[in-house]
Amino acid sequence: MKKLMGLLGSVWGGVITHKLRSFLTMLGIVIGVAAVIILMAVGKGTTQSVVSRISSLGANTIFVTPGATQQSGGVRTAFGSASTLTLEDGEAIAANVDNVVAVAPSSNTSVQTVVGGKNVRTMVTGVTPEYQEVYGITLAEGNFISADDNNSKARVVVIGSNVATTLFPDSDPLGQTVRSGNYIVTVIGVLESSGQSITGSTDNAIYMPLNTLQLLGGQLRTKNGDHVVSTIGIEASDAKYVSTVTADVTSLLLDRHQILDSANADFTVTSVDALLSSVKTITDQLTLLLGAIAAISLLVGGIGVMNIMLVSVLERTREIGIRKALGAKESDIWAQFLIEAAFLTFTGGVIGVILGWGGAFIINKTGLFTTVVTPDVIILAVSVSVGIGLFFGFYPAWNASRLEPIKALRSE
Amino acid sequence: MIKLEGITKSYKMGKRDLVVLKGINLQVNKGELVAIMGASGSGKSTLLNIAGCLDRPTTGKYYFEDKEVSRLKSGELASIRGQRIGFIFQTFNLLSRISALSNVELGMTYSGGVNRQRAKEALVKVGLGERMNHRPLELSGGEQQRVAIARAIVKNPSLFLADEPTGQLDSRSGEEVISILLSLHAEQGTTLIIVTHDASVAHRCQRIIHLKDGEVVAEENV
Asked: Model's pTM, two decimal places?
């Protein structure tokens, strides 16, 4: 114990004598650790926010989108760009597939919407009443698109909270008219601010009856006159039917599109679960990549530690000689320099954690990224930094311990 | 106390071997006060380093307290240095960045642990009770050498080795240092070997060993 105290005293003496140098050595580790923590926090935060957005749709939701997912060989149609999915497909699904609660075909057009001098340019989504159920839409006031609105091709819209505050900064938007594209439409509902949607924030959305949009927007039709839609959302009656519904929808659409081999399908059926797992895979890899980039800076910091320790050993050759003359064993000298390196990197690691944590907190506050700092990252970062100290301090410390006492004493 | 039998030491200098010690036979008994004299390059310091287990002989046998130590592992030599031997160097060899007291405590770090009270007592004994917290550079040469003596005393070693302890001191502080060393011998019966140029210092010892070109050329009892 007394020996350990003596050792720590020696280490502290070595660190404190060269304050600036010790600080600069630490700085490399501080920056490395802070970078690891911030980047991992951004990665994890992004994962978490994407996952929670998708999960908010519910585990029993299934999407059908046009275009194929990746196939081996052949040219792949860009995801969602093909015009192969129709309103009639949606109706067929609702009519023929069991265990389906709601089917919500929707279609998007980018239009400028104007009131007086104010305007917003957002995606206008043509929807049926089922859309509210399938996508979990909640209203702040008014009503969502009704079946009557859709059937009568009523010129009405439901707007997101951001759109409402932009167009009607100081009046109630309900019952007011806006010009959307070339048509005058009436606002019948305003969404609750949520920011929770797979297609981005619903705060900037404008919803219109699907039939109205088809009429006003000059929507595409297929060769046989069917109405093209961009997505069909399906809600199964229970999460346990998701796989059977997925299979049934796939075979129904293959049949309707007269495709024999499912490998050639011109649409993609995805469940939230499947989406979730693939998104998670991507974001996890992203997090890992960010962590790896940050780890490189930590490695560079570690090399800095080694460099400084080598210089420090050279400079203190005489001190090592004195200590050896006083009875220090090789292991004493070795431990002193190794602990000194580990102390520098540990302190650097702790400061790095504090800075990284603070940085992640500030980034979270700015709203640029969601950041999540988890304890495992902190433990990892600190132990890796101590490990770097031990690893990169090993060689200099070994060098020091091997000095011959006589030669070390004679050096200047 | 110590016995050297046919000790030689040679260094490689490029292709040639530089022979520093050519077969030294020497015995120092417990409680003896011995001076080693000789010109520069006569091998005095090398002999003292071997006696202090800081260096190993090329050939020959070295018995320290009846134990042959010349072929021991470096760790075992280190613990002999730590437990049994007190060194005093011409150049003091203090750590300049720490206080006199810390330097004395450093002497105990590798031999049984630091005891601040004993470190303070040792400094008082060499007359530096008032200057414990000064750093070496704030002390005179004589004071620095007395810190070095205190650093050796705290270990309570069985053998004191002083390598030209007054070589860098003026005559007055040199005399202070020598009288402290001699009083250690007189009061505690410490075994003390002093390497010196100074005949007046040597003549205050019990025995003088004259070295020339790596050989003992004369021994005289005072």
From this structure: 0.69
